[in-house]
Design brief:
38% of the residues lie in helices and 12% in strands. It is α/β, with parallel strands linked by helices.
């Protein structure tokens, strides 16, 4: 009888060991499978992003966001322009007459011409104004929009999409914070700005701004066509 009990205990222990081994093997397989899925995701994400960016590059900006008629846009402004080649030392805080600025004194260095989208890495406003002098259109988005992931993704998509010929590729999208200037009109979260020269026969240079409630590639295209890159203080720069 004693022997039978010892045998039973041994068989029970052996069964428990087999069950544990099977459980360990299953857990190992699950861990390996999970690691493989994570690895595939890490590999696949850049590839998917490249494909998406490639498609976006062939997409006209007018196809992104809502229609201009649905974007709650105000009419463009005609701001008195000043500050041509008025270079101020880096670090100088320049108080601009309008918000966001459409002309004015600026830093001697401009933002890189190769970069079209900024989030938290935005250079000083005074540097971006120099880009305006060279014919750029800047899309500014306020802090409320910066917190809206969907809107920011649309803005970034605009920066990668096919810009109208009138822009000559001179476009930057950047955040505009409350500390950067006066508050915008109520309900307006997006602003375009451009610094016109005398290319269209006018005797006085103007800055132009247009405020919209939401992202509209069609409204942006209309603004760029109305104020092309060639109509600038220094159109040949950039």
């Amino acid at each position: 009888m004693g022997k039978s009990q010892k045998q039973s205990r041994r068989e029970l222990v052996e069964k428990m060991q087999r069950d544990q081994a099977r459980a360990d093997k299953m857990r190992t397989r699950l861990i390996v499978a999970g690691c493989m899925l994570v690895g595939l995701a890490i590999i696949a994400y850049p590839a998917i992003k490249l494909i998406q960016d490639s498609r976006t590059r062939n997409q006209a900006i007018s196809e992104i966001g809502v229609a201009a008629s649905a974007a709650s846009c105000d009419a463009p402004t005609n701001d008195a322009a000043s500050g041509t080649q008025d270079h101020q030392p880096d670090g100088t805080k320049i108080p601009y007459a309008v918000s966001p600025p459409s002309s004015g004194p600026h830093y001697a260095d401009w933002a890189p011409f190769s970069k079209k989208f900024y989030a938290g890495d935005r250079p000083p406003v005074e540097r971006l104004v120099h880009n305006l002098e060279h014919g750029y259109t800047i899309l500014w988005y306020n802090e409320a929009t910066a917190k809206n992931k969907e809107q920011v993704e649309l803005i970034e998509k605009l920066s990668k999409a096919k810009l109208p010929d009138s822009s000559m590729g001179k476009f930057i999208a950047a955040p505009f914070n409350a500390a950067d200037g006066a508050a915008w009109p109520a309900g307006k979260n997006i602003a375009f700005s451009h610094w016109s020269g005398n290319a269209q026969g006018q005797t006085t240079a103007f800055g132009h701004r247009q405020f919209c409630g939401t992202v509209s590639g069609e409204a942006l295209k209309q603004f760029m066509d109305k104020y092309p890159a060639t109509d600038a203080q220094e159109p040949n720069g950039g």
